[in-house]
Each structure stands twice: as C-alpha cells, then as structure tokens.
Amino acid sequence: MRVLKLIAAPLGALALAACDTPSKNEAAPETAAAPSATLEEIVAARSDEDKARDQWRNPAETLTFFGVEPDSTVVEALPGRGWYTKVILPFVAEKGRYIGVNYHDEMWPLILPEPNPELLNFVTTWSDNFPAQAVDIAETTTPVTAYEFGGVPEDLNGSADVVLFIRALHNFNRAGGDFGAEALGDAHALLKPGGVLGVVQHAAPDGAEGAAADGTGGYMSKANVVAMAEAAGFELDGESDINANPADQPGAGDVVWRLPPTFGLGDQDRDKYAAIGESNRMTLRFRKPAS
User: Is the pLDDT of residue 15 over 80?
Assistant: First the structure.
C-alpha cells in the first residue's frame, strides 16, 4: 500500500504541473533576459523560486553538456510547467528554434491516478495552448510550436539539433505498451544526422532490478535507458555526473516522489527527505549516427 500511495501522489503533481503554467495575468519573473543573453545570464535572471532548484538541476551546465547553442533547434519532451522552457526558449529565440512535444494523448489516462473530464481535456488540448503559454512564461515573441508524440509532422524530420528527455522516460515505461519506443522513434526522426538525444533520468542504485529500475518508482537503471535509446537507433556518446546526488540512496519500495519537491509522504520523514534533496540523476548524451 505504501508504494501505491506514493505513486498516486506524484501523478497528481504531474497533472498539476501541467495545469500550473502561469497565465498572462500572473506576475512575470523578476527580470527578463534578452534573447542574446548567455545561458548563465538567462539562468541568473529567473525568479528566486526557479533558481532554488538549480543546485539539483544545473540547467546551464546540463544544456552545455548536450551541446545546445543559440542557433540550435531544440525539442523539449514534456515541458510541464516550463521550468526548462524558461531557459531554453530565450537562449535560442533569436537564432534557433524551440519545439515542445508532450506525451501521446492516450498515455494520460494510464499515468494519471484519477483522471477526470476537465483534466483530460486540458492535457489533450495541450498542443493548442502551450505555444502561447511558452511565449508568455519565457517573455519572448519568438513563435513556438507544440505537438504530441505520435503526431509530429513529417516535414520536421531531420530538423532538430537536440532532443531533450529530462526526467521524462520513466513515465513511458509506466504507461506500458509502445509509447516509449514511439517517442524515441520520433526523436530519432526529428534529429539531424549527428544530432543529440539528451537524457536526464532518476538513477536507480547499482544492482537494482525490476520495479526498482524500470521506471515504476521513477528510477531507471542506466542499462534500461541505454537499451531504450539503442533500440531506437541511438549511440551512447557521453555521460556526466552533473546532476548526481549521492545522498539519494533509495531502499526497497522507495519511489522518487518521496523526495522534494513532491514530498509524496506528506509530513512523514519530511525533514529527512528535505536533507537528501532532489533525486540522484544520470545525465546521458546519445547521438543519431551521422550516416
């Protein structure tokens, strides 16, 4: 029962994150970075709330490791409330392009704990609403396009320099079926030859197997991530400990959502989990073969 309770909490948080994108009537960040700003300047210009998570997410270092440049065409999988969008979109706004791609519509009933008509309508109309929301939260006038996996237009194939799956792969496995293979297939098609698939994923402890390593509890083993990427035609090109957190040592039955920012157990052991911080994460760079 403990595992089921923990899994339900983060799924609700996932849905709320999607619904929590600031509207045009909400307060703007403290300062707006110019489109020509460096990654470091863009990161520094965000709200204190967003910057508080940088110690775990390291956005400038992570995007640099994945080779994101001002003239890159970047595809972000599952933008959620736009935490990374606020960094990527201003960085590529002047010379590059940003594309958001969300989960396939049919995935939502499988990963939401108690889907209701209002919430399902929101997530299934996401591609219609996200472009305006992204421009708003990133404070830019650069056009944004948005699609769902399985519905990306073929004329975009071969156009992307980088496709990012940041804390996203586990939900494809949790939904089951061919959703993960379809999404990574879309990523492979979108990328130019030699393009980068960037993955940041909650990392299972060494030796973990089964539900502890397949995404069920949020954590995946490196072997499972590499297997998914290689099955889609990618080659592992590099890895980094940028987003590692050795303090996160999940035991049997522990799921990632016990940690901040979700605190899926509520007040139970909250101080202990706050001291651990956000999850231990692998950062893997894959490439689409050049030929």
Answer: no
